[in-house]
Amino acid sequence: MSSSALGRISTVAGHLAASHPKGLLAGQVAIITGSGQGIGAAAAKLFAKEGALVVVTDIDAVKAESVVNEIKSTNGTAIAVPGDVTDPSYPQKLIQKTIDTFGKVNHIVNNAGFTYDGMMHRMSDKQWEIMLSVHNTAPFRIVRAAAPHMRINSEEPRTIVMVSSTSGLHGNLGQANYATAKAGVTGFTKTLAKEWGAFNVRVNSVAFGLIDTRLTRPKESGEAIEVGGQKVQLGIPTKKTSTGADDKTMGRLIPLGRAGTADEAAASILFLCSPLSTFVTGTTLEVTGGAGI
């Protein structure tokens, strides 16, 4: 067994024995897109707690800075690089700022995204194209910009995690655009795992089921984002519960009988970036509470 493998095992053992106080990601640099709120924010705070130097990105600069301030208030290290991931110039800016500040990139979590639902026969070109842009093209550009700093011969841990959805695995009513984009994430993940595996870069995706975020709460709650000057309503069109499904539906479709939390979703991302998963690459981890089994 190599010295680096022994070192990783030692890290895990030390952490689990509460004798590794610096955390699972101590000194490693992690970029998490869309981390101004929801799953991304939970992941940013969890990564910082585990010792990572975190780059918070969000289209909303105020929200990004708020997460950074929260991390710093608990003695963590973070910077904000706000911007629109679909802007072709943003990926290079993001990577360059990360390198200028921390000198390296260990982990990229491509989490930024949203839904723009509609039945396929009424879906506009704009609805279709923006989903591919934010969920496929933006991550591609970010990873491509990071290639000179990750596709290198190094024993430093390096991972890429693509956030996907069960909509991409099974399809979903009213989400032909979103489901197609998330299905594309799987092909990107597997291909990149094969191309970059020789450089010890692990690439995985995580497919979330029902996680309690603004994308799964009732559409009537009024959550929305602006896309190209147009307001896009987020959420599920229902008035039943705070997570967009009634209790009977939960029990029938989700064996654990509830929606997941943002913190639980973040923990699954941490697993794929941590030394707990050093022989895991090219896979899609389903985090669903058992839905779909």
Task: Provide structural commentary.
Keywords: NADP, Oxidoreductase. GO terms for molecular function: oxidoreductase activity, acting on the CH-OH group of donors, NAD or NADP as acceptor; quinone binding. It holds the Pfam family adh_short. This is Ketoreductase domain-containing protein. It comes from Spizellomyces punctatus (strain DAOM BR117). The chain is of the alpha/beta class and 293 residues long. The protein has a single domain (3-211, 260-287), classed as NAD(P)-binding Rossmann-like Domain (Rossmann fold, 3-Layer(aba) Sandwich), CATH 3.40.50.720. Helices cover 42% and strands 15% of the residues. The protein has helices spanning 3-16, 38-49, 61-73, 90-102, 125-150, 166-170, 176-196, 247-253, 262-273, and strands spanning 29-32, 53-56, 77-80, 107-110, 158-165, 201-208, 224-227, 230-233, 284-287. The strands form 2 sheets. Strands 3-2-1-4-5-6-9 form a 7-stranded parallel beta sheet, with helices on both faces. Strands 7-8 form a two-stranded antiparallel sheet. Strand 2, helix 3 and strand 3 (77-80) form a beta-alpha-beta unit. Helix 2 (38-49) packs parallel to helix 3 (61-73), helix 2 crosses helix 9 (262-273) and helix 4 packs parallel to helix 5 (125-150). The longest helix is centred in the middle third of the chain and has 26 residues, at 125-150. The radius of gyration is 19 Å and the shape is globular. The mean pLDDT is 89.
